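Reference record
================
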Amino acid sequence: MTTAPGRRSSTFTRLLRHGFTDPSAAEQLLDLDALASVRSDPVLLEALGATADPDLALRGLVRIVEAGEEGERQVLLDTLVTAKPLRDRLLGVLGASEALGDHLARHPRDWQALVTYESADLNPGVAEFEGGLADAVDPDSLRVAYRRCLLTLAARDVCGTTDLAQTAAELADLATATLRAALAIARTAAPEDAAQCRLAVVAMGKCGGRELNYVSDVDVIFVGEARDGVDETKAMQAATRLAAHMMRICSETTVEGTIWEVDANLRPEGRNGPLVRTLSSHLAYYQRWAKTWEFQALLKARAVAGDPELGAEYVEAVSPLVWGAADRENFVPDVQKMRRRVVDNIPADRIERELKLGPGGLRDVEFAVQLLQLVHGRSDASLHSGSTLKALRALAEGGYVGRADAAQLDEAYRFLRAMEHRIQLYRLRRTHLVPEDEADLRRLGRSLGMRTDPVAELNKAWRRHASVVRRLHEKIFYRPLLDAVAQLAPAESRLSAKAAAIRLEALGYADPSAALRHLEALSSGVTRKAAIQRTLLPVLLGWFADSADPDAGLLGFRKVSDALGKTPWYLRLLRDEGAAAENLARVLSAGRLAPDLLMRAPEAVAILGDPEGLTPRSRGHLEQEVLAAVGRAGDAESAVAVVRGVRRRELFRTTAADLIGSYGTEDSPAEQDHGALVDRVGSAVTDLNAATIAGALRAAVRAQWGDTLPTRFAVIGMGRFGGHELSYGSDADVLFVHQPREGVSDEEAGRAAGAVVSEMRRLLQLPTADPPLLIDADLRPEGKTGPMVRTLKSYGAYYRRWSLVWESQALLRAEHMAGDEKLGREFIELVDPLRYPMEGLGEDAVREIRRLKARMESERMPRGADPTLHAKLGRGGLSDVEWTVQLMQMQHGWAEPGLRTTRTREALAAACAADLIPAEDAQTLDEAWVLAARVRNAVMLVRGRPGDTFPSDPREVAAVGRYLGYEPGHVGDMLDDYRRITRRARAVVEERFYGAAG
């Protein structure tokens, strides 16, 4: 085929038109003598062009022809051009599978398996495959026979003779026949073992469900029994040897390659359990120890090889346990754990290419279907199927899944499985990753019938179907619940009220009847509001079920919707702002505090839809807002009502940000730096309390004196307030200081300052819908018996003459918070020498601090409290860490500027940087302090009232666990971790505070 230089041959052009990507190489192959008799036959070129990869198909054909013996070559070529069935099948396989092309090159006569085209050949079952494997007597011949059978199966698949479900079922039937053949080989090799035991092979997973992939682990469970007169122990040893040999026959790599891995890890106790158990041993394990996921796996159990009676007995015995799994005590928390997609172990660069485990992948569909089977299959035997597609169809027919949703999921699942099949068929390797190479994507797209622009069409279809799965896999749990109560479309079969209640209970709702009433109230009717709610609720219900208290979440949503339902922006916000709905669901179902704050002013829900809405506002910004509000108000009480409203709104902003940061969302993982979470809460609550006090101070002054008080007045923050470490339920510890203005007598100034303090405290505690701010001045000189407010000179005189070491320690937290800034600075300058004494503390002072700490531990711990779980006063808790850090501050603050801070974590880091404490000890103390602080925050968020110990109510302690990052069912782990972390911290305290510190 020579052509003039610079011109394309007509063959080159035809090859290009028929889909060859390398026409030059294809032209050279067609010029080979081996293809001389067919190279110009238009039928051959047409058939090659119809394959997924014409270049690959032609290369494979050349290899087969060249590998065949002289006389057989022409028979193949003649048959190829005269028999369309063979032509389509052989070239179709060669264009889709390099691995099967390799097999045919090694065994060139196997093409003849594709010649027959009888009706029985179109739908082979286990018996036909067993016939195809009948001559296999060793692992190598079994592999060759397996590939020959696989060749015919793949040919039917790529030619469209069988659909996806039929192909998957045939692959499972071929696997069944292969397991039987392998077991027969193992028995022949060890007849004495075979004589001692009965052995049944039960298929699990996709093989058990007759929906196998081209290359997938074949999951099995082995059941054994002793034959009459044989000792059980010896029989189990014999059965184990047979089972292990059977696994090796299938799994090991020989000169003929491998078949697939046989995986027995779904057996009781997994890898750690015996490979073979008796039936009674299996049942004892399942009845006592099995987890919910194990019953989920048993959904697909099917006896496939070995002793058929024993296999049938096993399946019959475990079936009641499978369909009763939803009644088990831990079913709901297990379901909550299982419903969370586990993608942490998928590398970030691969997650978007994952067909199986990635978002919108095959696992989403399979899990959703299996979970609904477990929930409803106990009362409906029509759902007892191991096949995902059959079960999905049965769920739709029974009204458990909406028909339209089921149809979309069916279509998406078939497409994704077809992609998976074609990807694996190419090299017969176990993979679920969509390739990145352009040529691979082109072949994949063409194999699925996409010919115009295969790569673009494939990517578009893949993303569309994955999006459908991602959107529907959660909704199918909840949408039928709405259909059950909304009473729309009466012709469609729907979930009964009883079935709806069963599903809600399985998903964690403690009061399904009340939940159904809420759903009915929210979604019934034909209004636009009800229509939007029906769109939102399936997703929201899933987020509620992902929390520790789904009932509270749904009730809260109903209350907010009742309050704002007629407000045009509310439902639009939830529908259109993707994050707003999920944020609201997290906030409403995580405890009492945030919903209580929201219910007092539901319009604050708008914060959740603003990209910057969860960012705490600065103190300067807050003070500007509250002081402006006070200036506009008519009297002190109305002014402070506005100020307290601002505080409530900002508390909601802070709690919402804390909860969402701790829980994470679908698009944003949970915050891993727990110290940063605690610091943000502490700073935010401190700033808004400081701004609130500033507003109350301005309102109290304006009500009686106008713009100027007769005395300069400042509020000094103490304790956690001064340390910027407030939790949600903390009081504001303060000192009040004043300094008479020029020309004002001490008596007049004192009366004015005292009146301002009284009025501030009254205003901040007035009974309103907003949470009060309690001001605690008990750390003042002389405590409760001393004057509420003093002049700067009076403070100086007291501290010089009467101050005790504990007062100096308390002053470590002193920081100006509101009022006259210059006076505040003067107070701090006054107390600095007390809290950071030159040359540190003397031995007597150190002993006194230790004595006070020991006394506090013995006297202040609440009666009956567990000292290992008390976050404030318990072993290794907040008090332990803070006193240890404060002792270092008082000893070394005079020399180390970094220690002169009111914040515990900053001081601890400075002490570590100054080599006053080893880094490991500092880390131990910091971890314990952060954890204890988070526990206090969690208790307030969950219960709506402050507490220093873990709640006793199971739901409340579970909610605390979720806030702290523990999965459902792991409350015990949370308490163990708390005790372990604080025990280590206490050991550091014993050494650093009570031991050689100093």
